[in-house]
Amino acid sequence: MSIITKREQQILTIIRDNPLISQKQLAEQLGLTRSSVAVHITNLMKKGLIRGKGYILNENNYVTVIGGSNIDIIGFPNQPLRVKDSNPGVVKISVGGVGRNIAENISRLGICSKLITAVGSDLYGKKIVNESKVAGINMDHIMVLENVSSSTYLSVMNKNGDMNIAISHMEAIEHLAISYLKKHDSIIKNSTCLVLDTNLTKDVIEFLVNNYHSTNIFVDTVSVAKSSKIKDLLPYIHTIKPNRYEAEHLTGITLNNKKSIYKALKHLLTLGVKNVVISMGNQGVFYSNENGEGHVPVTNVKLVNSTGAGDAFMAGLVYGYLNHKSLKKSCEISMAASAITLSSQLTINPNLNINTVKKIVKENY
Question: How far is Cα 95 from Cα 132, in angstroms, rounded to an integer?
């Protein structure tokens, strides 16, 4: 699959909104020379992403992500947290949501992504849509809800950058119904692969895995409680990446040493999953599929903010799969993407791209 540069992503986003835009207008909008734009257009044509006059988009190779989108409001204290007190610090507001974050990370790795999600018609909803478009996500298929607030995730970190407490208001995604997804059947069916998060309702997840399992499905389990939604659907799932506690919940096996971790991996494979990756925090990840099993350690990175690292990891797995990498190599790519995310106060690090990922892989593995 061809790699898309950040500038090419910007051009594709503009062309998607205005296919008849001229190279002169593109140059003015982006602050480039017309000759530079012509080079980018030629490269996009060579990569098969646009074709003919009028810049018709060719999106035969794309990933569809179906899941949550929200506004992230994250507080970072300057000092150790004091309970029941006002803590001086910094508050960051950014667009987020597991599904939306995965879609943006996939886009930043140079792969076309389409997002199906639900947002309100409020200011937060407009912010989610506009910033996601700028990030290169195709937002043509989202559901915009009247009289429903866009989802919001509020968290407070400790002085080490780990989450101390969070409140998740995810009402909007509950309105994403099967009837709406049926209207987008061709988009889902023609995806190179399909990524779901378990913020979706159980009936929606069941509908998707039962009707589209011929398209390889990747699932982000999100949390212990929400992972229950896929417990009976594992034979239809291609790849999952639970953390320690989600894996314990799905298998009934306590993960307290390597032997128990590999036992859980094997158990999930026997239930029908093709690729299983279990995150064990600072112990790294353990993986298994029919070709073998193994361990990938964490990279050396200063933790600034743990929010969003799992979303970057899933995007890395998708990138590895689409580029025919082994599961081990895919996990290395994913660990590098996570490391880049962990080093930023933002949920998605704007420095994430395939070149920065490859650099970390080379330095650590």
Answer: 8
- Reference 96, options 218, 197, 245; nearest CA is 197
Identity of the highest mean pLDDT range in 79-83, 184-188, 258-262: 258-262
The predicted model scores a pTM of 0.83
Q: Going by CATH, does the domain composed of 63-364 fall within 3.30.750.24?
A: no
CB 278 within 8 A of CB 71: no
The rounded radius of gyration (Å) of the Cα atoms in the chain is 20
The 3-class SS string of 245-298 reads HHHHHHHCCCCCCHHHHHHHHHHHHHCCCCEEEEECHHHCEEEEECCEEEEECC
In 3D space, the residue among 2, 76, 7, 67 whose CA is nearest the CA of residue 36 turns out to be: 7
Q: For residue 277, give every residue at least 6 positions away whose Cβ sits within 8 Å of its Cβ, in sequence order, or none.
A: 239, 240, 241, 285, 286, 287, 317, 327, 331, 334
Closest CA to 72 of 116, 120, 113, 127: 127
Average pLDDT over residues 168-189: 94
Per-residue pLDDT reduced to its tens digit, 48-103: 677 655 665 555 689 999 999 999 999 999 999 999 999 999 999 989 999 999 99
Cβ atoms of 343 and 349 closer than 8 Å: yes
Each domain of the chain, given as residue ranges in start order, spans 1-58, 63-364
* Mean per-residue pLDDT, 17-23: 78
Q: 336 near 360, Cβ under 8 Å?
A: yes
CA–CA separation, 114 and 103 (whole Å): 7
Q: Are 67 and 181 in contact (CB under 8 A)?
A: no
The three-state (H, E, C) secondary structure of 104-167, written as one string: HHHHHCCCCEEEECEEECCHHHHHHHHHHHHCCCECCCCEEECCCCCEEEEEEECCCCCEEEEE
Measured CA to CA, the distance from residue 1 to residue 322 in angstroms comes to 7
If one counts every other C-beta atom within 10 angstroms of the C-beta of residue 94, the result is 17
- List the Cα angle 1/208/288 in 5-degree steps: 60
Q: How far apart are CA 354 and CA 336, in angstroms?
A: 10
Contact by Cβ (8 Å): 358, 322: no
Question: Exposed/middle/buried for 16, CB within 10 Å: 0-12, 13-18, 19+?
Answer: middle
Look at domain 1-58 and name its CATH class: mainly alpha
